[in-house]
Specification:
- With about 180 residues, the protein is mainly alpha-helical.
- About 50% of the residues lie in helices and about 5% in strands.
- It has one domain: Beta-lactamase (3-Layer(aba) Sandwich).
Length: about 180
């Protein structure tokens, strides 16, 4: 939690016990995948899958505000340096790895399409929140709006609909036309 607090510029995140219990109660697929990955050597021999998954469920249950999310995105965009405190929180290698994971699987089943259409790392949350990181670019008003008022979750189990993707594309290109291509 200390790292999250540093990334947010000193604001302490919360923990959602109800989310933790829900994630834990519906984790059959996660356990299955964990054991399959262990069988294939994806984890060290002495790795306790149950403990690893419990930690994952706890990470899924960290509660952050829209302001926290914006500060974290800005810290990642700023190579791991929190723009609020100017403290180096993450090493560049850690940021690179985090952004790679966000780009490849941060939008779950929609990750490939999002990467193809948008081309930058993003992470959707259980709450319906969305964090987009554009390296070198800090928080924009559009990002704050998206974080403060996330759209409803789609059938892809993330908050970003295709129409919202089009709004983002237009915003980044400086266009005002929302016509589909």
């Amino acid at each position: 939690m200390e790292t999250w607090e540093k990334l947010t510029g000193g604001q302490r995140p919360g923990f959602g016990n109800a989310v933790y219990l829900s994630e834990r109660a519906t984790a059959d697929t996660n356990f299955c995948l964990g054991y399959m990955m262990k069988e294939k050597g994806a984890f060290e021999k002495d790795c306790n899958i149950v403990h690893a998954l419990e930690l994952y469920f706890m990470f899924c249950s960290i509660e952050i505000t829209s302001e926290h999310t914006a500060a974290i995105a800005a810290s990642l965009a700023n190579a791991g340096i929190c723009p609020i405190t100017e403290e180096k929180v993450l090493e560049p290698r850690t940021v690179r790895n985090c952004l790679s994971m966000m780009a490849s699987c941060g939008m779950y089943d929609f990750s490939g399409e999002f990467a193809f259409k948008m081309g930058f790392p993003a992470k959707s949350g259980v709450s319906g929140s969305l964090m987009i990181v554009i390296p070198g670019l800090m928080v924009s008003p559009l990002m704050l709006i998206l974080l403060a008022f996330p759209p409803p979750r789609s059938h892809h189990h993330h908050p970003l609909s295709l129409s919202l993707t089009r709004v983002l594309e237009c915003s980044l290109q400086g266009s005002t036309s929302l016509e589909t291509r």
